[in-house]
Amino acid sequence: MKKIIFVLALAFTSSTLFAQDLTTPQSSADVGSRPIQQGNWLVGGSIGSLGYSFEGENFNINLNPQAGYFISDGIAIGLSAGVGLQTVKHGDNIWSYKVMPFARYYFPEGASSTGRFFGQLEAGITGAENGGVSDTSFGFGVNAGYAHFISNTVALEFTGGYNYSKSNHANAEAQNGLGIAVGFQIYLPGRR
């Protein structure tokens, strides 16, 4: 009797599994300009970024959440925050943070129904802690990127650019360098 129940259960399970409609995951969505219209919101950020400082020969990794609001079609303003770790050759590691307002512009040139190129400027306060000593300073960034929409409201983003911070913790008077980031944004429709 146990063998008959086991065979029936196995037959039922296998028929249920094979009856399922197997689909491939969605890799892009035809969104046009709907996500970047006036009144919409964006929330997300880069889940990791890597960079190299020219002056101090340092390597860094950061986490940068951000939120913004589209003040007109293709133009968003918002606030970017961040926390990071910088390894220092022959020294103490540096923990850093930032709080920076930003402005982002989505270019109509080169746009497709599934993606957009954008530019982002940000300026604000940066800080660092090295060996128990804290420092707060001015910083700014100029970045360019591409947002590829994988659904109607979610986009993967690839960015690269130049960042500057006037910090006394680097091996120079100021710290600057190039960086790249990979992240995501969620585009939320506003009220109409």
UniProtKB/TrEMBL annotation:
- Where is the signal peptide, in residue numbers? 1-19
Mind telling me which InterPro entries this protein's record contains? OMP/PagP_B-barrel
UniProt entry keywords in alphabetical sequence: Signal
Top-level division of the source organism's lineage: Bacteria
Name recorded for this polypeptide: Outer membrane beta-barrel protein
Taxonomic lineage from the root: Bacteria, Pseudomonadati, Bacteroidota, Flavobacteriia, Flavobacteriales
